[in-house]
């Protein structure tokens, strides 16, 4: 049979003994407290009786009575003075001073402070002081003045007599009340003293009874604790968790039925074994490890248990220690959690599968949105080109309808892409300076045409102080406002739409901006207000007749405003209109000296009058494109295919401007520029503009030292070329402006081909773009097929990659340009970048360009 613990009865006895000791301490402390109370109250009674035996209030009574006596003497002095000569005024003044001194004593002496605390006494005293203060000018005047005012003085003095009398009577009443209160206090102390004495006697009686019943209580507690111990043993024995009790040496002394089932050991066998036998951990020699005390009191912890048959299972355990008269024991509650861990594993796998599915869905949506948008942009571009051709009204109408449908489809695809990017966390942007009035004005102007068709008036205004510049993610804010104003225009006919801006709170560097979009449209049904910002929610059949939509716009608004740290809400009355309210934290700033790249407002660039221009460029495709761009504006263009030819052409003819490619065979652009500047030819001071697809700030500085005047980066377009011409010929150069270097599209998603740029090149070169693309395709195939395998020197390969990047930029192949530039930098460092990435990017780019061209 297993050993059973028989400490339960003794342990409660120990606890009972401690409890009784505590009770004795409490009783003794209470008795001492009562004794101290008796002594303290006896002394208090003695002091109060001593005070009652003194006549300390006599002085107060005398002072109050004396005030009335001195007042009557003043009246008598005034009456005696009445009708006398002005030489008999001294006694009157003396009597007034005596009364004034008495009243001042009553008003300021600490002895009378408790009387002054009573409102009635204080008001009466104030009335008398007022009389005295008003009389002082008469008393202190000349004898003649005093004699002339003696009747008035007597009348005033008699008027104050009730107050003097009330002062004395009120003071006597207060003194009587105080004396009565003192006597009551003495009586109360005597009563309390009697109570304390009675309590002390009662305590002695209770102590006697307590001592009499102590043995009876002790025996009763023993019986109760024995029954409790029996119940506890029953609970432990029937527990579903394994309960293992060990002594201070960690040897098992109690092993319940659940423990037998969990570990496959009988209680007889388990008793006296080390508790570490139940755990999987072992010493190097195979001996079980003792369960260390540092596991005690840690709550529920997970270890590995060992079954009697040798298999290991996950175990959850909690160990606590208990001090008994047998010494310290350890109680462990243990549970096999194999099934729980299996369930947790299944749950985690299900969660991971769900997350993977969600991730795959988001990636699929992003991919499909992008893949749909790319050919859709090409379709819209071709429709735009078709509209420029001569055709009948019916065909033009059909093409217009196709373009409208395509733009609507593109907007929906963009909405899906925006949601996917935001939800995936990929849409990470930074705040930058934004001219708020300009943004709002641009948005309202953009909606003006559709609003006019609807018969709706648009306006915007500031409420309170306006703000010009703020720091915020302007792209998100613009997207939100376009969505809200666009929705208001769609659902408002023959009405008004107002956009209000207001600063609702301002501190040192942070402000709360509130934007309200208010319309007088059809409104929103009350049952739709709760879900209006959810995805794919529309306002119903009635409103779909006004305007179609997928219900994604307001979902994007909600996401973007939350991302900006703000809130959005809506108020609406059906049939009367709606108000969308945005609250955003912004930082007002001064107008920045320089705006971020890509955030500048477009400037109107005038075309300069025709010039004689030399283009030094080894890439024939680039020659054709820049030539077409310049000739389109009426300029005369000459070409040179390398730096050496460029120097010779510059020495032979006067040009107004020279475009100089940097990387060319035989002689590069920098060397050619130095030769032209160092000669005494006709172009030694002609502006020379560097053409390059990739340039670093440090290289720009070196270009200027070589004699180049400016830098024009590829890909070239009409605006860049015209802006460069304007900088050097129209006299309208903007301060500190530099033509933007080519950068990857500001959109956060990768773009293989800039279709807008491609369409512009198509407009510039016309049908020749097909021939240019075929030549470029052949050059790229040659590059991948032979050039990269030719074993040429890295410098030669770097120049070739530079030329190919310039050609790729012509077609807006942004990803291909970046890849070629990266390979150029690798070859310049003497590294081999490989051709796998270039082959993949060119394959994708070629497919898109083939479809678009």
UniProtKB/TrEMBL annotation:
Q: Which NCBIfam families match?
A: sensory_box
Extract the SUPFAM superfamilies matched here: ATPase domain of HSP90 chaperone/DNA topoisomerase II/histidine kinase (SSF55874), CheY-like (SSF52172), Histidine-containing phosphotransfer domain, HPT domain (SSF47226), Homodimeric domain of signal transducing histidine kinase (SSF47384), PYP-like sensor domain (PAS domain) (SSF55785)
* PANTHER family according to UniProt: TWO-COMPONENT HISTIDINE PROTEIN KINASE
User: Per its UniProt entry, which superkingdom is the organism in?
Assistant: Bacteria
Q: Coiled coil located at which positions?
A: none
Domain named PAS: residues: 228-272
For this protein, the Enzyme Commission number is 2.7.13.3
Every Histidine kinase domain range? 367-588
The UniProt catalytic activity note for this protein reads: ATP + protein L-histidine = ADP + protein N-phospho-L-histidine
Name this polypeptide is given = histidine kinase
Residues carrying 4-aspartylphosphate: 661
Mind telling me which Gene3D superfamilies this protein's record contains?
Answer: 1.10.287.130, 3.40.50.2300, Histidine kinase-like ATPase, C-terminal domain, HPT domain, PAS domain
Q: Which Gene Ontology BP annotations are present? A: regulation of DNA-templated transcription
Recall the GO molecular function terms of this protein's record: phosphorelay sensor kinase activity
């Amino acid at each position: 049979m297993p050993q059973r613990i028989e400490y339960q009865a003794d342990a409660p006895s120990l606890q009972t003994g401690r409890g009784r000791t505590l009770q004795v301490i409490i009783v003794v402390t209470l008795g001492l407290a009562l004794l101290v109370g008796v002594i303290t109250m006896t002394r208090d009674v003695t002091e109060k009786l001593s005070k009652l035996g003194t006549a300390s209030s006599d002085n107060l009574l005398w002072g109050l009575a004396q005030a009335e006596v001195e007042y009557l003497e003043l009246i008598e002095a005034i009456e005696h003075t009445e009708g006398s000569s002005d030489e008999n005024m001294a006694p009157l003044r003396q009597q007034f001073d005596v009364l004034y001194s008495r009243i001042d004593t009553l008003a300021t002496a600490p002895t009378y402070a408790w009387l002054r605390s009573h409102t009635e006494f204080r008001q009466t005293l104030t009335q008398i002081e007022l009389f005295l203060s008003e009389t002082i000018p008469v008393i202190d005047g000349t004898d003649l003045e005093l004699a002339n005012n003696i009747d008035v003085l007597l009348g005033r003095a008699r008027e104050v007599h009730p107050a003097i009398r009330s002062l004395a009577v009120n003071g006597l009443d207060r003194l009587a009340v105080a004396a009565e209160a003192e006597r009551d206090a003495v009586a109360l102390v005597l009563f309390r003293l009697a109570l304390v004495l009675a309590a002390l006697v009662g305590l002695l009686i209770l102590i006697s009874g307590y001592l009499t019943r102590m043995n009876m209580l002790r025996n009763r507690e023993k019986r109760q604790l024995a029954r409790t111990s029996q119940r506890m043993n029953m609970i432990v024995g029937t527990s579903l968790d394994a309960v293992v009790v060990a002594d201070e040496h960690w040897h098992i002394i109690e092993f319940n039925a659940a423990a037998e089932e969990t570990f496959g050991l009988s209680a007889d066998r388990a008793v006296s074994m080390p508790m570490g036998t139940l755990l999987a951990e072992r010493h190097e020699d195979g001996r079980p490890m003792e369960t260390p005390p540092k596991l005690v009191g840690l709550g529920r912890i997970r270890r590995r248990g060992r079954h009697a048959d040798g298999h290991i299972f996950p175990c959850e355990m909690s160990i606590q220690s208990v001090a008994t008269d047998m010494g310290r024991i350890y109680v462990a509650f243990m549970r096999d959690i194999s099934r729980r861990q299996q369930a947790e594993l299944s749950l985690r796998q299900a969660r991971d599968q769900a997350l993977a599915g969600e991730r795959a869905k988001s990636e699929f949506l992003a991919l499909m949105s992008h893949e749909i948008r790319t050919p859709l942009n090409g379709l819209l571009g071709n429709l735009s080109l078709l509209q420029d051709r001569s055709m009948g009204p019916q065909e033009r109408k059909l093409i217009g309808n196709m373009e409208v449908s395509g733009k609507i489809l593109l907007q929906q695809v963009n909405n899906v892409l925006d949601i996917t990017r935001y939800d995936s966390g990929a849409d990470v942007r930074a705040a930058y300076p934004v001219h708020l009035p300009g943004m709002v004005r641009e948005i309202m102007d953009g909606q003006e045409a559709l609003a006019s068709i609807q018969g709706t008036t648009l306006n915007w205004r500031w409420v309170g102080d306006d703000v010009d510049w703020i720091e915020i993610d302007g792209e998100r804010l613009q997207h939100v406002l376009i969505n809200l104003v666009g929705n208001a225009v769609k659902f408002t006919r023959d009405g008004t739409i107002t956009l209000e801006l207001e600063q609702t709170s301002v501190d040192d560097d942070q402000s709360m901006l509130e934007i309200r979009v208010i319309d007088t449209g059809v409104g929103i049904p009350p049952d739709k207000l709760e879900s209006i910002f959810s995805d794919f929610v529309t306002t119903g059949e009635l409103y779909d007749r006004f305007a179609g939509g997928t219900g994604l716009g307001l979902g994007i608004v909600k996401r973007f405003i939350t991302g900006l740290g703000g809130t959005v809400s809506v108020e609406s009355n059906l049939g009367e209109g709606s108000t969308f309210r945005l609250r955003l934290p912004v930082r007002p700033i001064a107008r920045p000296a320089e705006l971020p790249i890509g955030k500048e407002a477009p400037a109107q660039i005038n075309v300069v009058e025709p010039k004689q221009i030399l283009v030094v460029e080894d890439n024939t495709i680039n020659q054709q494109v820049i030539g077409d761009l310049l000739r389109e504006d009426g300029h005369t263009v000459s070409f040179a295919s390398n730096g050496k030819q460029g120097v010779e052409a510059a020495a032979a003819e006067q040009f107004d401007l020279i475009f100089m490619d940097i990387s060319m065979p035989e002689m590069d652009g920098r060397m050619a520029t130095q030769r032209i500047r160092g000669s005494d030819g006709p172009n030694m001071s002609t502006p020379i503009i560097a053409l390059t697809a990739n340039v670093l700030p440090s290289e720009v500085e070196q270009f200027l030292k070589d004699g180049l005047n400016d830098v024009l980066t590829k890909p070239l377009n009409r605006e860049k070329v015209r802006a460069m011409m304007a900088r050097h010929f129209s006299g309208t150069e903007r301060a500190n402006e530099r033509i933007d270097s080519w950068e990857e599209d500001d959109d956060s998603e990768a773009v293989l081909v800039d279709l807008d740029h491609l369409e512009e090149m198509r407009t510039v070169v016309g049908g020749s773009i097909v021939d240019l693309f075929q030549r470029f395709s052949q050059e790229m195939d040659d590059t991948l097929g032979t050039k990269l395998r030719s074993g040429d020197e890295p410098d030669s390969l770097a120049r070739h990659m530079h030329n190919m990047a310039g050609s790729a930029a012509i077609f807006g192949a942004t990803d291909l340009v970046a890849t070629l530039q990266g390979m150029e930098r690798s070859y310049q460092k003497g590294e081999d970048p490989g051709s796998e990435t270039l082959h993949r990017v060119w394959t994708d780019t070629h497919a898109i360009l083939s479809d678009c061209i």
